[in-house]
UniProtKB/TrEMBL annotation:
<dbReference type="InterPro" id="IPR001117">
    <property type="entry name" value="Cu-oxidase_2nd"/>
</dbReference>
<keyword id="KW-0186">Copper</keyword>
<keyword id="KW-0560">Oxidoreductase</keyword>
<keyword id="KW-0325">Glycoprotein</keyword>
<feature type="domain" description="Plastocyanin-like">
    <location>
        <begin position="157"/>
        <end position="307"/>
    </location>
</feature>
<dbReference type="Pfam" id="PF07732">
    <property type="entry name" value="Cu-oxidase_3"/>
</dbReference>
<feature type="signal peptide">
    <location>
        <begin position="1"/>
        <end position="22"/>
    </location>
</feature>
<dbReference type="Pfam" id="PF07731">
    <property type="entry name" value="Cu-oxidase_2"/>
</dbReference>
<dbReference type="InterPro" id="IPR011707">
    <property type="entry name" value="Cu-oxidase-like_N"/>
</dbReference>
<keyword id="KW-0677">Repeat</keyword>
<protein>
    <recommendedName>
        <fullName>Laccase</fullName>
        <ecNumber>1.10.3.2</ecNumber>
    </recommendedName>
</protein>
<dbReference type="InterPro" id="IPR017761">
    <property type="entry name" value="Laccase"/>
</dbReference>
<keyword id="KW-0439">Lignin degradation</keyword>
<dbReference type="InterPro" id="IPR034285">
    <property type="entry name" value="CuRO_2_LCC"/>
</dbReference>
<dbReference type="InterPro" id="IPR011706">
    <property type="entry name" value="Cu-oxidase_C"/>
</dbReference>
<dbReference type="InterPro" id="IPR033138">
    <property type="entry name" value="Cu_oxidase_CS"/>
</dbReference>
<dbReference type="InterPro" id="IPR008972">
    <property type="entry name" value="Cupredoxin"/>
</dbReference>
Length: 562
Protein backbone atom coordinates (compact mmCIF):
# COMPACT_ATOMS: atom_id res chain seq x y z
CA UNK A 1 0.00 0.00 0.00
CA UNK A 2 2.82 2.43 0.91
CA UNK A 3 4.44 1.72 -2.44
CA UNK A 4 1.18 2.51 -4.28
CA UNK A 5 0.76 5.77 -2.33
CA UNK A 6 4.34 6.73 -3.20
CA UNK A 7 3.66 6.02 -6.88
CA UNK A 8 0.52 8.16 -6.74
CA UNK A 9 2.41 11.04 -5.13
CA UNK A 10 5.08 10.84 -7.86
CA UNK A 11 2.38 10.95 -10.57
CA UNK A 12 0.61 13.93 -8.95
CA UNK A 13 3.88 15.84 -8.53
CA UNK A 14 4.76 15.09 -12.14
CA UNK A 15 1.40 16.41 -13.34
CA UNK A 16 1.69 19.53 -11.17
CA UNK A 17 5.15 20.14 -12.56
CA UNK A 18 3.84 19.74 -16.11
CA UNK A 19 0.95 22.18 -15.69
CA UNK A 20 2.49 24.58 -13.17
CA UNK A 21 3.28 27.17 -15.80
CA UNK A 22 0.50 26.29 -18.25
CA UNK A 23 -2.69 28.28 -18.53
CA UNK A 24 -6.21 27.57 -19.71
CA UNK A 25 -7.76 30.05 -22.14
CA UNK A 26 -11.51 30.35 -22.67
CA UNK A 27 -12.81 32.28 -25.66
CA UNK A 28 -16.17 32.76 -27.34
CA UNK A 29 -16.26 33.32 -31.10
CA UNK A 30 -19.58 34.75 -32.30
CA UNK A 31 -19.77 34.22 -36.07
CA UNK A 32 -22.04 36.94 -37.40
CA UNK A 33 -22.74 39.38 -40.21
CA UNK A 34 -21.09 42.77 -39.80
CA UNK A 35 -21.43 45.90 -41.91
CA UNK A 36 -18.09 47.29 -43.13
CA UNK A 37 -17.05 49.92 -45.66
CA UNK A 38 -14.14 49.38 -48.04
CA UNK A 39 -13.32 50.87 -51.46
CA UNK A 40 -16.22 53.36 -51.24
CA UNK A 41 -18.79 50.58 -50.67
CA UNK A 42 -20.62 49.36 -47.58
CA UNK A 43 -21.65 45.72 -47.37
CA UNK A 44 -22.16 42.90 -44.87
CA UNK A 45 -19.39 40.37 -44.35
CA UNK A 46 -19.06 37.37 -42.05
CA UNK A 47 -16.85 38.11 -39.02
CA UNK A 48 -15.95 36.79 -35.59
CA UNK A 49 -17.14 39.03 -32.75
CA UNK A 50 -17.81 41.82 -35.25
CA UNK A 51 -14.07 42.23 -35.89
CA UNK A 52 -12.25 42.17 -39.22
CA UNK A 53 -9.73 40.61 -38.95
CA UNK A 54 -10.93 38.57 -36.00
CA UNK A 55 -9.42 38.61 -32.50
CA UNK A 56 -5.75 37.82 -31.97
CA UNK A 57 -5.29 34.96 -29.49
CA UNK A 58 -2.06 35.18 -27.47
CA UNK A 59 -0.99 32.05 -25.58
CA UNK A 60 2.14 30.28 -24.43
CA UNK A 61 3.67 26.99 -25.44
CA UNK A 62 1.93 24.37 -23.27
CA UNK A 63 -1.33 26.30 -22.79
CA UNK A 64 -4.75 24.77 -23.41
CA UNK A 65 -7.51 26.55 -25.31
CA UNK A 66 -11.28 26.18 -25.18
CA UNK A 67 -12.88 28.18 -27.98
CA UNK A 68 -16.68 28.03 -28.24
CA UNK A 69 -17.88 29.00 -31.70
CA UNK A 70 -21.48 30.23 -31.83
CA UNK A 71 -22.86 30.48 -35.36
CA UNK A 72 -25.21 33.42 -35.78
CA UNK A 73 -24.51 33.73 -39.50
CA UNK A 74 -26.59 32.36 -42.38
CA UNK A 75 -23.94 29.90 -43.57
CA UNK A 76 -22.52 26.72 -42.09
CA UNK A 77 -19.12 27.36 -40.54
CA UNK A 78 -16.08 25.62 -39.04
CA UNK A 79 -12.82 27.02 -37.64
CA UNK A 80 -9.37 25.59 -38.42
CA UNK A 81 -6.34 26.20 -36.20
CA UNK A 82 -3.82 26.45 -38.97
CA UNK A 83 -0.52 24.77 -38.12
CA UNK A 84 -1.41 23.66 -34.59
CA UNK A 85 -0.30 20.05 -34.12
CA UNK A 86 -3.53 19.11 -32.22
CA UNK A 87 -1.92 15.97 -30.85
CA UNK A 88 -4.48 13.16 -30.59
CA UNK A 89 -7.32 15.69 -30.94
CA UNK A 90 -8.24 15.74 -34.65
CA UNK A 91 -11.81 16.61 -33.61
CA UNK A 92 -10.54 20.19 -33.13
CA UNK A 93 -8.98 20.53 -36.59
CA UNK A 94 -12.00 22.05 -38.32
CA UNK A 95 -12.09 21.31 -42.08
CA UNK A 96 -15.72 20.88 -43.06
CA UNK A 97 -16.75 17.24 -43.65
CA UNK A 98 -13.16 16.09 -43.08
CA UNK A 99 -12.85 16.16 -39.27
CA UNK A 100 -16.31 17.42 -38.39
CA UNK A 101 -19.71 18.24 -39.76
CA UNK A 102 -20.26 21.99 -39.97
CA UNK A 103 -21.70 24.18 -37.23
CA UNK A 104 -25.10 25.06 -38.64
CA UNK A 105 -26.74 28.47 -38.19
CA UNK A 106 -27.89 28.68 -34.57
CA UNK A 107 -25.47 25.92 -33.49
CA UNK A 108 -22.27 25.93 -31.46
CA UNK A 109 -19.18 23.80 -30.85
CA UNK A 110 -16.22 24.09 -28.48
CA UNK A 111 -12.76 23.47 -29.92
CA UNK A 112 -10.45 22.03 -27.24
CA UNK A 113 -6.72 21.67 -27.79
CA UNK A 114 -3.29 22.15 -26.22
CA UNK A 115 -0.27 23.87 -27.75
CA UNK A 116 2.55 21.31 -27.60
CA UNK A 117 6.16 22.25 -28.39
CA UNK A 118 5.31 25.10 -30.74
CA UNK A 119 6.36 28.75 -30.54
CA UNK A 120 5.94 31.61 -32.96
CA UNK A 121 3.06 32.66 -35.19
CA UNK A 122 0.14 30.61 -36.45
CA UNK A 123 -3.39 31.66 -37.29
CA UNK A 124 -7.00 30.52 -37.34
CA UNK A 125 -9.54 30.75 -40.12
CA UNK A 126 -12.86 29.44 -41.36
CA UNK A 127 -12.59 26.13 -43.21
CA UNK A 128 -15.98 25.98 -44.88
CA UNK A 129 -16.81 27.40 -48.29
CA UNK A 130 -14.69 30.52 -48.93
CA UNK A 131 -15.64 32.19 -45.65
CA UNK A 132 -12.00 32.51 -44.66
CA UNK A 133 -11.87 35.56 -46.95
CA UNK A 134 -13.04 37.53 -43.88
CA UNK A 135 -13.08 34.98 -41.01
CA UNK A 136 -9.49 34.82 -39.79
CA UNK A 137 -7.14 36.04 -37.06
CA UNK A 138 -3.66 35.62 -35.59
CA UNK A 139 -2.58 32.98 -33.07
CA UNK A 140 0.52 34.19 -31.23
CA UNK A 141 2.42 31.50 -29.29
CA UNK A 142 4.94 32.85 -26.79
CA UNK A 143 7.61 30.73 -25.08
CA UNK A 144 6.74 29.00 -21.83
CA UNK A 145 6.90 31.11 -18.71
CA UNK A 146 10.56 31.36 -17.74
CA UNK A 147 11.78 30.58 -21.27
CA UNK A 148 13.06 33.12 -23.76
CA UNK A 149 13.08 33.78 -27.47
CA UNK A 150 16.29 32.55 -29.16
CA UNK A 151 16.94 36.21 -30.05
CA UNK A 152 16.90 39.51 -28.17
CA UNK A 153 13.41 40.43 -27.01
CA UNK A 154 11.96 43.03 -29.41
CA UNK A 155 10.53 46.19 -27.89
CA UNK A 156 7.35 45.90 -29.97
CA UNK A 157 5.37 43.03 -31.43
CA UNK A 158 2.77 43.48 -34.20
CA UNK A 159 0.68 41.06 -36.28
CA UNK A 160 0.68 41.93 -39.99
CA UNK A 161 -2.13 39.93 -41.62
CA UNK A 162 -2.21 40.04 -45.41
CA UNK A 163 -5.59 39.39 -47.00
CA UNK A 164 -7.76 39.79 -50.09
CA UNK A 165 -10.92 41.86 -50.46
CA UNK A 166 -13.83 41.42 -52.87
CA UNK A 167 -16.50 44.06 -53.40
CA UNK A 168 -18.96 41.26 -54.15
CA UNK A 169 -20.18 38.80 -51.54
CA UNK A 170 -17.50 36.08 -51.38
CA UNK A 171 -20.03 33.24 -51.38
CA UNK A 172 -21.57 34.69 -54.55
CA UNK A 173 -18.07 34.75 -56.10
CA UNK A 174 -17.58 31.10 -55.14
CA UNK A 175 -20.98 30.02 -56.41
CA UNK A 176 -20.47 31.76 -59.74
CA UNK A 177 -17.11 30.01 -60.25
CA UNK A 178 -18.58 26.63 -59.30
CA UNK A 179 -21.55 27.13 -61.63
CA UNK A 180 -19.56 28.28 -64.67
CA UNK A 181 -16.54 26.00 -64.23
CA UNK A 182 -14.31 29.01 -64.91
CA UNK A 183 -11.71 30.70 -62.69
CA UNK A 184 -13.18 32.95 -59.97
CA UNK A 185 -13.25 36.71 -60.27
CA UNK A 186 -10.07 38.38 -59.04
CA UNK A 187 -10.09 40.22 -55.75
CA UNK A 188 -10.55 44.00 -55.83
CA UNK A 189 -7.81 44.73 -53.28
CA UNK A 190 -5.24 43.24 -50.99
CA UNK A 191 -5.32 44.25 -47.34
CA UNK A 192 -3.08 44.62 -44.29
CA UNK A 193 -5.02 43.93 -41.11
CA UNK A 194 -8.25 44.32 -43.04
CA UNK A 195 -7.42 47.69 -44.65
CA UNK A 196 -6.41 48.20 -48.32
CA UNK A 197 -4.23 51.25 -47.70
CA UNK A 198 -3.48 54.56 -49.36
CA UNK A 199 -3.18 53.35 -52.96
CA UNK A 200 -6.88 52.45 -53.23
CA UNK A 201 -9.98 54.63 -53.53
CA UNK A 202 -11.65 55.80 -50.28
CA UNK A 203 -9.07 53.98 -48.16
CA UNK A 204 -6.61 56.52 -46.75
CA UNK A 205 -8.54 57.15 -43.56
CA UNK A 206 -8.41 53.51 -42.54
CA UNK A 207 -4.77 52.80 -43.46
CA UNK A 208 -3.06 50.83 -40.69
CA UNK A 209 -0.25 52.68 -38.90
CA UNK A 210 2.47 51.11 -36.76
CA UNK A 211 4.16 53.65 -34.44
CA UNK A 212 7.77 53.09 -33.41
CA UNK A 213 10.44 55.00 -31.51
CA UNK A 214 13.81 55.53 -33.18
CA UNK A 215 16.14 52.64 -32.42
CA UNK A 216 13.42 50.19 -31.39
CA UNK A 217 13.40 46.61 -32.61
CA UNK A 218 10.01 45.46 -33.83
CA UNK A 219 8.78 41.90 -34.35
CA UNK A 220 6.41 41.75 -37.32
CA UNK A 221 4.34 38.55 -37.45
CA UNK A 222 3.49 38.37 -41.17
CA UNK A 223 0.58 36.05 -42.03
CA UNK A 224 -0.68 35.43 -45.55
CA UNK A 225 -4.44 35.00 -45.10
CA UNK A 226 -5.14 35.76 -48.78
CA UNK A 227 -7.63 33.39 -50.33
CA UNK A 228 -5.86 32.74 -53.63
CA UNK A 229 -2.56 34.59 -53.90
CA UNK A 230 1.12 34.38 -52.92
CA UNK A 231 2.47 37.78 -51.88
CA UNK A 232 5.76 39.64 -51.75
CA UNK A 233 6.18 41.87 -48.66
CA UNK A 234 8.68 44.63 -47.90
CA UNK A 235 9.17 47.77 -45.79
CA UNK A 236 10.69 50.85 -47.44
CA UNK A 237 14.36 51.52 -46.48
CA UNK A 238 14.32 48.84 -43.75
CA UNK A 239 15.93 45.42 -43.69
CA UNK A 240 14.04 42.44 -42.28
CA UNK A 241 15.71 39.73 -40.20
CA UNK A 242 13.81 36.46 -40.65
CA UNK A 243 13.67 34.59 -37.33
CA UNK A 244 10.70 32.21 -37.66
CA UNK A 245 8.38 30.48 -40.11
CA UNK A 246 5.15 28.57 -39.40
CA UNK A 247 5.74 28.58 -35.60
CA UNK A 248 9.28 27.21 -35.82
CA UNK A 249 12.55 29.08 -35.42
CA UNK A 250 15.06 29.31 -38.25
CA UNK A 251 18.65 30.42 -38.53
CA UNK A 252 18.28 34.21 -38.78
CA UNK A 253 19.13 35.99 -42.01
CA UNK A 254 18.51 39.49 -43.33
CA UNK A 255 16.65 40.44 -46.48
CA UNK A 256 14.75 43.40 -47.91
CA UNK A 257 11.81 41.31 -49.18
CA UNK A 258 10.00 38.10 -48.23
CA UNK A 259 7.57 35.91 -50.16
CA UNK A 260 4.70 34.44 -48.17
CA UNK A 261 2.39 31.81 -49.63
CA UNK A 262 -1.27 31.49 -48.61
CA UNK A 263 -1.34 29.84 -45.19
CA UNK A 264 2.29 30.59 -44.36
CA UNK A 265 3.61 32.82 -41.57
CA UNK A 266 6.97 34.57 -41.36
CA UNK A 267 8.35 36.35 -38.29
CA UNK A 268 10.75 39.19 -39.07
CA UNK A 269 12.56 41.67 -36.86
CA UNK A 270 12.85 45.24 -38.09
CA UNK A 271 15.05 47.86 -36.44
CA UNK A 272 13.82 51.45 -36.61
CA UNK A 273 17.23 52.76 -37.60
CA UNK A 274 16.32 55.10 -40.46
CA UNK A 275 15.79 58.84 -40.48
CA UNK A 276 12.61 59.51 -38.48
CA UNK A 277 9.79 59.63 -40.95
CA UNK A 278 6.96 57.64 -42.51
CA UNK A 279 7.63 54.47 -44.50
CA UNK A 280 5.23 52.21 -46.34
CA UNK A 281 5.16 48.50 -45.73
CA UNK A 282 3.62 46.96 -48.82
CA UNK A 283 2.53 43.67 -50.37
CA UNK A 284 1.62 42.65 -53.88
CA UNK A 285 1.17 39.48 -55.91
CA UNK A 286 3.68 36.83 -56.82
CA UNK A 287 1.71 35.24 -59.70
CA UNK A 288 3.00 32.25 -61.67
CA UNK A 289 0.13 30.98 -63.86
CA UNK A 290 1.02 31.36 -67.52
CA UNK A 291 -1.15 34.13 -69.02
CA UNK A 292 -3.30 34.02 -65.88
CA UNK A 293 -5.35 36.96 -64.63
CA UNK A 294 -4.66 38.23 -61.11
CA UNK A 295 -5.16 41.24 -58.84
CA UNK A 296 -2.18 43.46 -59.73
CA UNK A 297 -2.73 46.07 -57.01
CA UNK A 298 -0.60 46.89 -53.95
CA UNK A 299 -1.69 47.10 -50.32
CA UNK A 300 0.10 49.36 -47.85
CA UNK A 301 0.38 50.18 -44.17
CA UNK A 302 2.58 52.85 -42.61
CA UNK A 303 5.58 52.47 -40.31
CA UNK A 304 5.59 55.82 -38.53
CA UNK A 305 8.33 57.12 -36.28
CA UNK A 306 6.97 58.89 -33.20
CA UNK A 307 7.38 62.58 -32.37
CA UNK A 308 8.03 63.70 -35.93
CA UNK A 309 8.90 67.39 -35.91
CA UNK A 310 8.39 67.77 -39.65
CA UNK A 311 6.81 65.72 -42.39
CA UNK A 312 4.19 64.24 -40.10
CA UNK A 313 1.71 64.31 -42.96
CA UNK A 314 4.15 63.73 -45.82
CA UNK A 315 3.61 60.87 -48.24
CA UNK A 316 5.56 57.82 -47.02
CA UNK A 317 8.33 56.22 -49.05
CA UNK A 318 7.21 53.14 -51.01
CA UNK A 319 9.42 50.02 -51.09
CA UNK A 320 10.58 48.53 -54.39
CA UNK A 321 8.72 45.24 -54.64
CA UNK A 322 9.72 42.51 -57.09
CA UNK A 323 7.86 42.07 -60.36
CA UNK A 324 4.80 39.82 -60.13
CA UNK A 325 6.63 37.00 -61.99
CA UNK A 326 9.98 37.29 -60.19
CA UNK A 327 10.48 33.60 -59.45
CA UNK A 328 14.21 34.18 -58.94
CA UNK A 329 13.55 36.38 -55.89
CA UNK A 330 10.98 33.94 -54.46
CA UNK A 331 13.42 31.06 -54.94
CA UNK A 332 16.36 32.94 -53.43
CA UNK A 333 14.28 33.68 -50.34
CA UNK A 334 13.17 30.04 -49.96
CA UNK A 335 16.73 28.77 -50.40
CA UNK A 336 18.00 30.87 -47.49
CA UNK A 337 15.63 29.26 -44.98
CA UNK A 338 17.46 26.89 -42.64
CA UNK A 339 16.21 25.17 -39.50
CA UNK A 340 17.80 25.36 -36.07
CA UNK A 341 19.53 22.41 -34.33
CA UNK A 342 16.55 22.01 -31.95
CA UNK A 343 14.15 21.55 -34.85
CA UNK A 344 16.10 18.97 -36.78
CA UNK A 345 15.81 15.27 -36.13
CA UNK A 346 15.17 14.41 -39.74
CA UNK A 347 14.31 10.73 -40.31
CA UNK A 348 16.87 9.01 -42.51
CA UNK A 349 15.12 5.65 -42.88
CA UNK A 350 11.93 6.05 -44.91
CA UNK A 351 8.99 3.68 -44.42
CA UNK A 352 6.56 5.36 -46.83
CA UNK A 353 8.06 6.83 -50.00
CA UNK A 354 5.27 8.70 -51.80
CA UNK A 355 5.23 10.67 -55.05
CA UNK A 356 2.31 13.10 -55.52
CA UNK A 357 1.68 15.16 -58.64
CA UNK A 358 -0.19 18.39 -57.84
CA UNK A 359 -1.81 20.59 -60.43
CA UNK A 360 -4.79 21.72 -62.41
CA UNK A 361 -6.90 19.81 -64.90
CA UNK A 362 -9.76 20.38 -67.30
CA UNK A 363 -13.00 18.43 -67.60
CA UNK A 364 -14.69 18.19 -70.98
CA UNK A 365 -18.27 19.44 -71.07
CA UNK A 366 -20.99 20.59 -73.44
CA UNK A 367 -20.83 24.22 -74.48
CA UNK A 368 -23.15 26.29 -72.31
CA UNK A 369 -23.42 28.39 -69.14
CA UNK A 370 -21.88 25.60 -67.02
CA UNK A 371 -18.95 25.09 -69.37
CA UNK A 372 -17.04 28.38 -69.36
CA UNK A 373 -13.51 27.15 -68.69
CA UNK A 374 -10.81 27.18 -71.41
CA UNK A 375 -11.99 25.77 -74.75
CA UNK A 376 -15.37 24.56 -73.47
CA UNK A 377 -14.17 22.82 -70.33
CA UNK A 378 -14.56 23.10 -66.58
CA UNK A 379 -11.57 23.60 -64.29
CA UNK A 380 -10.58 20.76 -62.00
CA UNK A 381 -7.50 20.00 -59.90
CA UNK A 382 -5.99 16.83 -58.51
CA UNK A 383 -3.32 14.97 -56.59
CA UNK A 384 -2.04 11.96 -58.54
CA UNK A 385 -4.87 12.52 -61.03
CA UNK A 386 -7.52 12.04 -58.31
CA UNK A 387 -9.76 15.08 -57.87
CA UNK A 388 -10.80 14.91 -54.23
CA UNK A 389 -14.52 14.72 -53.51
CA UNK A 390 -15.43 15.80 -49.98
CA UNK A 391 -18.37 13.80 -48.56
CA UNK A 392 -21.61 15.35 -47.37
CA UNK A 393 -23.33 12.59 -45.34
CA UNK A 394 -20.77 12.64 -42.54
CA UNK A 395 -17.17 13.68 -41.96
CA UNK A 396 -14.26 11.43 -42.90
CA UNK A 397 -13.05 11.35 -39.30
CA UNK A 398 -16.45 10.31 -37.97
CA UNK A 399 -16.74 7.66 -40.68
CA UNK A 400 -13.29 6.32 -39.77
CA UNK A 401 -13.93 6.36 -36.01
CA UNK A 402 -17.40 4.82 -36.30
CA UNK A 403 -16.38 2.42 -39.10
CA UNK A 404 -19.14 3.77 -41.35
CA UNK A 405 -18.92 2.06 -44.78
CA UNK A 406 -19.34 3.73 -48.14
CA UNK A 407 -17.87 7.15 -47.30
CA UNK A 408 -14.32 6.70 -48.59
CA UNK A 409 -11.95 4.12 -50.00
CA UNK A 410 -8.33 3.38 -49.07
CA UNK A 411 -6.90 3.13 -52.57
CA UNK A 412 -5.28 6.52 -53.02
CA UNK A 413 -2.28 5.87 -55.31
CA UNK A 414 1.17 6.21 -53.73
CA UNK A 415 2.62 7.24 -57.12
CA UNK A 416 1.04 8.76 -60.23
CA UNK A 417 -1.08 6.15 -62.07
CA UNK A 418 0.68 7.21 -65.28
CA UNK A 419 4.22 8.55 -65.44
CA UNK A 420 4.79 11.37 -67.93
CA UNK A 421 6.86 14.47 -68.55
CA UNK A 422 5.22 16.37 -65.68
CA UNK A 423 6.49 19.84 -66.55
CA UNK A 424 6.74 19.44 -70.32
CA UNK A 425 4.11 19.10 -73.03
CA UNK A 426 1.44 16.95 -71.41
CA UNK A 427 -0.79 14.79 -73.60
CA UNK A 428 -4.42 15.99 -73.70
CA UNK A 429 -5.46 12.51 -72.66
CA UNK A 430 -4.01 13.23 -69.20
CA UNK A 431 -5.73 16.56 -68.64
CA UNK A 432 -8.98 15.16 -67.20
CA UNK A 433 -8.68 13.70 -63.67
CA UNK A 434 -10.77 11.01 -62.06
CA UNK A 435 -12.99 11.93 -59.13
CA UNK A 436 -13.12 10.12 -55.80
CA UNK A 437 -12.82 10.19 -52.01
CA UNK A 438 -9.66 8.13 -51.73
CA UNK A 439 -7.53 8.11 -48.57
CA UNK A 440 -4.07 6.75 -47.80
CA UNK A 441 -3.40 4.89 -44.54
CA UNK A 442 -0.19 5.33 -42.52
CA UNK A 443 0.99 3.24 -39.59
CA UNK A 444 1.66 5.17 -36.40
CA UNK A 445 5.31 6.15 -36.13
CA UNK A 446 6.15 5.55 -39.79
CA UNK A 447 8.69 7.84 -41.43
CA UNK A 448 7.10 9.43 -44.47
CA UNK A 449 8.63 11.15 -47.48
CA UNK A 450 6.48 12.88 -50.10
CA UNK A 451 7.74 14.23 -53.40
CA UNK A 452 5.33 17.02 -54.41
CA UNK A 453 5.60 17.51 -58.16
CA UNK A 454 4.00 20.41 -60.05
CA UNK A 455 2.54 19.65 -63.48
CA UNK A 456 2.11 21.63 -66.69
CA UNK A 457 -1.50 20.55 -67.24
CA UNK A 458 -3.13 23.83 -68.30
CA UNK A 459 -0.18 25.67 -66.70
CA UNK A 460 2.61 25.17 -64.24
CA UNK A 461 2.02 27.07 -61.02
CA UNK A 462 3.41 27.62 -57.53
CA UNK A 463 1.13 25.59 -55.21
CA UNK A 464 1.13 26.21 -51.41
CA UNK A 465 0.53 22.71 -50.03
CA UNK A 466 -0.65 22.50 -46.40
CA UNK A 467 -0.67 19.35 -44.26
CA UNK A 468 -3.08 19.43 -41.32
CA UNK A 469 -2.02 18.11 -37.92
CA UNK A 470 1.69 18.10 -38.74
CA UNK A 471 4.73 20.11 -39.48
CA UNK A 472 7.41 18.68 -41.74
CA UNK A 473 10.99 19.06 -42.87
CA UNK A 474 11.53 20.54 -46.32
CA UNK A 475 14.56 18.51 -47.43
CA UNK A 476 14.69 19.58 -51.06
CA UNK A 477 13.27 21.84 -53.77
CA UNK A 478 14.03 22.30 -57.42
CA UNK A 479 12.72 22.93 -60.93
CA UNK A 480 11.69 20.54 -63.66
CA UNK A 481 10.85 16.89 -63.02
CA UNK A 482 12.13 15.34 -59.80
CA UNK A 483 14.92 12.84 -60.47
CA UNK A 484 15.43 10.38 -57.63
CA UNK A 485 18.85 9.41 -58.97
CA UNK A 486 20.37 12.89 -58.94
CA UNK A 487 18.18 15.13 -56.75
CA UNK A 488 18.24 12.91 -53.66
CA UNK A 489 21.98 13.45 -53.30
CA UNK A 490 21.36 17.17 -52.81
CA UNK A 491 18.81 16.80 -49.98
CA UNK A 492 19.43 18.96 -46.92
CA UNK A 493 19.25 16.53 -44.00
CA UNK A 494 21.32 18.70 -41.66
CA UNK A 495 19.32 21.89 -41.18
CA UNK A 496 16.19 21.82 -43.35
CA UNK A 497 13.45 24.36 -42.58
CA UNK A 498 10.35 23.14 -40.78
CA UNK A 499 6.96 24.22 -42.14
CA UNK A 500 3.29 23.30 -42.23
CA UNK A 501 2.73 24.82 -45.69
CA UNK A 502 5.23 24.50 -48.52
CA UNK A 503 5.18 26.44 -51.79
CA UNK A 504 5.92 23.85 -54.47
CA UNK A 505 7.97 25.83 -57.01
CA UNK A 506 6.33 26.72 -60.31
CA UNK A 507 7.27 23.99 -62.78
CA UNK A 508 9.21 22.20 -60.07
CA UNK A 509 9.07 20.01 -56.98
CA UNK A 510 9.49 19.95 -53.23
CA UNK A 511 10.27 17.00 -50.96
CA UNK A 512 9.00 16.86 -47.38
CA UNK A 513 9.48 14.38 -44.55
CA UNK A 514 7.52 13.82 -41.35
CA UNK A 515 6.91 11.19 -38.70
CA UNK A 516 3.32 9.94 -38.57
CA UNK A 517 2.99 10.42 -34.80
CA UNK A 518 -0.47 12.05 -34.64
CA UNK A 519 -3.38 9.63 -35.12
CA UNK A 520 -6.51 10.75 -36.95
CA UNK A 521 -7.64 11.86 -40.39
CA UNK A 522 -5.56 14.70 -41.77
CA UNK A 523 -6.14 16.74 -44.92
CA UNK A 524 -3.35 17.63 -47.34
CA UNK A 525 -4.38 20.32 -49.82
CA UNK A 526 -3.47 23.38 -51.83
CA UNK A 527 -4.12 26.51 -49.77
CA UNK A 528 -5.38 28.40 -52.80
CA UNK A 529 -9.08 28.02 -52.06
CA UNK A 530 -10.18 27.87 -55.69
CA UNK A 531 -7.81 24.91 -56.18
CA UNK A 532 -9.16 23.18 -53.07
CA UNK A 533 -12.69 23.60 -54.40
CA UNK A 534 -11.58 22.04 -57.69
CA UNK A 535 -10.21 18.99 -55.85
CA UNK A 536 -6.51 19.62 -55.19
CA UNK A 537 -6.48 17.63 -51.97
CA UNK A 538 -6.23 14.19 -50.41
CA UNK A 539 -6.32 12.88 -46.84
CA UNK A 540 -4.25 10.56 -44.69
CA UNK A 541 -5.53 8.18 -42.05
CA UNK A 542 -2.86 7.81 -39.36
CA UNK A 543 -3.59 4.72 -37.30
CA UNK A 544 -3.42 4.59 -33.52
CA UNK A 545 -0.22 3.37 -31.94
CA UNK A 546 0.11 1.62 -28.59
CA UNK A 547 -1.30 3.08 -25.38
CA UNK A 548 -3.11 6.29 -24.50
CA UNK A 549 -0.36 8.65 -25.68
CA UNK A 550 -0.51 7.17 -29.17
CA UNK A 551 -4.28 6.89 -29.43
CA UNK A 552 -6.80 9.35 -30.82
CA UNK A 553 -9.14 10.80 -28.20
CA UNK A 554 -12.86 9.99 -28.49
CA UNK A 555 -15.14 12.63 -30.02
CA UNK A 556 -16.39 15.39 -27.69
CA UNK A 557 -20.09 15.26 -26.75
CA UNK A 558 -20.96 18.51 -28.57
CA UNK A 559 -19.42 17.49 -31.91
CA UNK A 560 -21.83 18.76 -34.61
CA UNK A 561 -23.86 16.15 -36.45
CA UNK A 562 -24.58 16.18 -40.18
Amino acid sequence: MDTCISCLIVVILSLLSTFANAEFHYHEFIVQETSVTRLCRTKNIITVNGQFPGPTLTVRNGDTLFVTVVNRARYNVTIHWHGVRLMRTPWADGPEYVTQCPIRPGGFYTYRFTIENQEGTLWWHAHSKWLRATVYGALVILPKQGSNFPFSLPQKDFPVILGEWWNRDIIAVQRQAQFTGAAPNNSDAYTINGQPGDLYRCSTQGTVKYSVNPGESVLLRVINAALNQQLFFSVANHMLTVVGIDATYNKPFTTNVIMVGPGQTTNVILTANQSPGRYYMAARAYATVRNGQFDNTTTTAILEYKNLKSGANSRPLLPRLPAFNDTATATAFANRLRGTPNSNRVPNQIDENLFFTVGLGLVNCTRGPRCQGPNNTRFAASVNNISFVIPRRTSLLQAYYQKTPGIYTLDFPRVPPVQFDYTGNVSRGLWQPRFGTKLYKLKFGSNVQIVLQDTAIFSTEDHPIHLHGYHFWVVGQGFGNFNSQTDTANFNLNDPPVRNTIDVPVGGWAVIRFVADNPGVWLLHCHIDSHLSWGLAMAFIVENGIGEKQTMEPPPPDLPQC
